[in-house]
């Protein structure tokens, strides 16, 4: 840590310089702590699947299973954990590119409803498998927006994926409407909800309400950080409302294309 603490003897220029130095030292320390936490998180997240891979590979190598069925179960775990590693590495790569401003967005004038439809098609099976109801309400004519179709779809599949992941029964509601020269999108679920104290943090990298639940359900804790970055890179905004036990609502807006 930067161990700087200037004493401020006066209220003049020297005094304010002293205060500026103290503020800077404090900010630097906050940044360093965040960085340290981030790297600790990454190594933990990488180590967990790797230890499963190693453990189950050893079990198989030593023939420590009772039946072919059990063997298949272990192989499935190895496959799942490998998939998880690939997702995690891709997410990390995406995030670091975005944060350095090095991601190339292919912006064009697009019909957001088509992109949404394609995202909904991809998650339809998951929704059916969980017995959830999907309700869609889209304005008759929705003006085009300026965006990157692939990245926009990534935003939708991510938010829809979360809505499904954290909802046991009830519905996922999607609404799209046009107001104040903006297109608004709402994705709402009747799931477990997010405690008020976590709400300001859920867009942070690796922040999860329940680590084990998120992991069990295939989450990496990076989804919403990526979503927020992608939304803002496309000149949009995102906000969240939630009530524990009732459900969660994400709302996005993008400016209508000129
Ligand atoms: P994860 O991969 O863990 O889902 P995200 O960054 O997508 O990571 O989300 C961060 C955390 O926010 C999740 O771990 C979960 O606790 C909470 N969360 C996100 N979306 C929802 C939702 N629709 N309902 C309840 N909790 C949610």
Describe the protein's architecture and organization:
- The chain is of the alpha+beta class and 258 residues long.
- The chain is 52% helix and 17% strand.
- The chain contains six helices and seven strands; from the N terminus they run H-H-E-H-E-E-H-E-E-H-H-E-E.
- The chain has a five-stranded mixed β-sheet with strand order 2-4-5-7-6, with helices on one face. Strands 1-3 form a two-stranded antiparallel sheet.
- The longest helix is centred in the N-terminal third of the chain and has 49 residues, at 13-61.
- The protein is globular.
- The structure holds adenosine-5'-diphosphate.
- It is a multi-pass membrane protein.
- It is an enzyme of class 2 (transferase).
- This is histidine kinase.
- It catalyses: ATP + protein L-histidine = ADP + protein N-phospho-L-histidine.
């Amino acid at each position: 840590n930067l161990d700087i603490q200037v004493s401020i003897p006066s209220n003049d220029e020297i005094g304010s310089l002293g205060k500026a130095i103290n503020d800077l030292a404090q900010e630097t320390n906050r940044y360093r702590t965040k960085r340290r936490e981030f790297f600790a998180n990454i190594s933990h997240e990488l180590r967990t699947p790797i230890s499963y891979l190693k453990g189950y590979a050893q079990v198989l190598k030593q023939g420590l299973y009772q039946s072919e069925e059990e063997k298949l179960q272990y192989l499935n775990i190895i496959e799942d954990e490998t998939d998880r590693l690939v997702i995690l590495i891709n997410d990390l790569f995406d995030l670091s590119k975005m944060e350095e401003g090095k991601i190339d967005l292919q912006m064009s004038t697009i019909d957001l409803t088509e992109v949404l439809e394609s995202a909904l098609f991809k998650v339809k099976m998951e929704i059916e498998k969980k017995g959830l109801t999907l309700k869609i309400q889209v304005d008759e004519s929705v003006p085009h927006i300026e965006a990157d179709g692939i990245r926009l779809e990534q935003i939708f599949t991510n938010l829809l994926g979360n809505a499904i992941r954290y909802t046991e029964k009830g519905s996922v509601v999607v609404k799209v409407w046009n107001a104040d020269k903006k297109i608004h999108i709402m994705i709402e679920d009747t799931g477990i909800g997010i405690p008020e104290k976590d709400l300001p943090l859920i867009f942070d990298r690796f922040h999860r309400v329940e680590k084990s639940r998120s992991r069990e359900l295939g989450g990496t804790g990076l989804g919403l950080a990526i979503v927020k970055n992608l939304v803002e890179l496309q000149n949009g905004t995102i906000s969240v409302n939630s009530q524990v036990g009732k459900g969660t609502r994400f709302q996005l807006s993008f400016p209508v294309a000129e």
